[in-house]
């Protein structure tokens, strides 16, 4: 399979805005007076990993029950207390990790570039089982009640016994010869998983046997040249309040039923970075790096922030009254969730970019830079000083 490097293919931006004429475009000069409305105060930082080596690795920080977990390409898995930054445990598996970690009470699961899927004991790193898939793992595994679901980069999805690691089923999807590098993470549903594929299709697979329960076409090929026909779903779908939200590259932004795939609403859109959802809005980064907010119940545009165009912005993260994201310049930017205006910009890394979306832990925002530094920022209104 051939992969596209994103910087070479993000030349056009028209698809992201098609049919979106009613949104309010937020002015881009909010910080020209040099006085941010919100203070982003760093509470702690740690050298948590060896960093991101290649585009497409699924090595974002994972937050579970107040602990933040980080894996790296040298094979280390670490757990930190999100509030204090205190290291809880760390171990090494001795081989490079490209997908994970997935976390459960009694298990950590990671995938490797060489197609290994390894389940380990938390804290000690003792191996529980070791399984194989057909190619590198560039997506976060899903740990279910009795099954572990893993997606390989060649379009196959595997179901392994959670207890023994024995293979129960494999689901094979035909993927195009040319695609964006990276994989959409599977999302756990009731009785299965939903996965977006390189062919532009969102599928729900049954956990029991891996068969398709339903599917929806999110992105369709256009034109005759291979480059024109790229139509990946690289962004991870988001399940929120009984609705599954999905967006495709050169495709559509959709809200669908997780039980049967019924489309509640859809609109033309193009994104590979991803999105987040809160009670009122879907926040999504388009293919040019602009941040949008749309009504999560109707898909209608609410606002669009243009000042991020060309900065390779990450997926946004909803954080109370704010929306936060990182970019290729190493900055953390804070927007108003209400109207999209820029409230603060903070230079997080002088030497490297931020390609993984920030994570809100409720009280603060966790950021992992591409050179491996994990940090937590607390946001507060300047007027509250």
Explain what this protein looks like in three dimensions.
The chain starts with a strand and ends with a strand. The protein has a five-stranded mixed β-sheet with strand order 2-28-27-26-25, with no helix packed on it. The protein has a domain of 114 residues: Lipocalin (Beta Barrel). The chain is mainly beta and 385 residues long. It is built from two helices and 35 strands. The N terminus is likely disordered. The radius of gyration is 20 Å and the shape is globular. It comes from Aquisalimonas asiatica. This is Outer membrane protein assembly factor BamB. Part of the outer membrane protein assembly complex, which is involved in assembly and insertion of beta-barrel proteins into the outer membrane. Part of the Bam complex. Keywords: Cell outer membrane, Lipoprotein, Membrane, Palmitate, Signal.
Order of the strands making up the biggest sheet: 2-28-27-26-25
CATH architecture label of one domain: Beta Barrel
Q: What structural class should be given to the helix and strand makeup?
A: mainly beta
Tell me the radius of gyration: 20 Å
Compute the average pLDDT: 88
* pLDDT < 50 runs, ≥5 residues: 1-22
Number of strands: 35
Helix run count = 2
Distance between the termini: 54 Å
The proportion of strand residues reads: over 45%
Principal-axis shape equals globular
The CATH class of one domain is Mainly Beta
- Per the CATH scheme, the topology name of one domain is Lipocalin
């Amino acid at each position: 399979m051939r992969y596209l490097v994103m910087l070479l293919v993000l030349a056009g931006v028209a698809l992201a805005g098609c049919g979106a004429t009613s949104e309010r475009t937020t002015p881009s000069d909010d910080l020209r007076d040099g006085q941010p409305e919100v203070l982003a105060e760093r509470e702690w930082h740690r050298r948590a990993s060896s960093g991101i080596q290649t585009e497409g690795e699924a090595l974002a920080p994972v937050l579970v029950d107040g602990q933040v977990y980080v894996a790296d390409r040298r094979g280390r898995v670490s757990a930190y207390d999100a509030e204090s930054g205190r290291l809880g445990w760390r171990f090494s598996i001795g081989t490079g990790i490209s997908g994970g970690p997935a976390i459960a009470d009694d298990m950590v699961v990671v995938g490797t570039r060489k197609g290994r899927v390894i389940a380990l004991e938390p804290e000690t790193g003792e191996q529980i089982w070791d399984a194989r898939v057909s190619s590198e793992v560039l997506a976060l595994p899903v740990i279910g009640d009795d099954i572990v679901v893993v997606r390989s980069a060649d379009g196959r999805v595997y179901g392994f016994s959670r207890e023994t690691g024995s293979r129960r089923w494999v689901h094979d999807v035909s993927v195009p010869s040319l695609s964006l590098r990276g994989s959409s993470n599977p999302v756990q549903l009731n009785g299965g998983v939903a996965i977006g594929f390189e062919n532009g299709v969102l599928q729900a697979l049954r956990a029991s046997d891996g068969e398709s329960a339903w599917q929806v076409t999110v992105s369709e090929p256009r034109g005759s040249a291979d480059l024109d026909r790229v139509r990946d779903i690289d962004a991870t779908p988001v399940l929120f309040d009984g609705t599954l939200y999905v967006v495709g590259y050169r495709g559509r932004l959709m809200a669908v039923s997780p039980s049967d795939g019924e489309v509640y609403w859809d609109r033309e859109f193009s994104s590979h970075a991803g999105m987040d959802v809160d009670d009122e809005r879907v926040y999504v980064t388009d293919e040019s790096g602009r941040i949008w907010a749309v009504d999560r119940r109707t898909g209608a545009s609410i606002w669009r922030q243009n000042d991020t165009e060309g900065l390779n912005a990450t997926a946004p993260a909803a954080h109370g009254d704010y929306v936060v994201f990182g970019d290729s310049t190493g900055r953390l930017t804070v927007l108003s969730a209400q109207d999209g205006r820029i409230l603060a910009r903070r230079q997080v890394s002088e030497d490297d970019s931020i390609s993984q979306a920030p994570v809100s832990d409720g009280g603060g925002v966790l950021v992992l830079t591409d050179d491996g530094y994990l940090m937590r920022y607390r946001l507060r209104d300047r007027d509250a000083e």
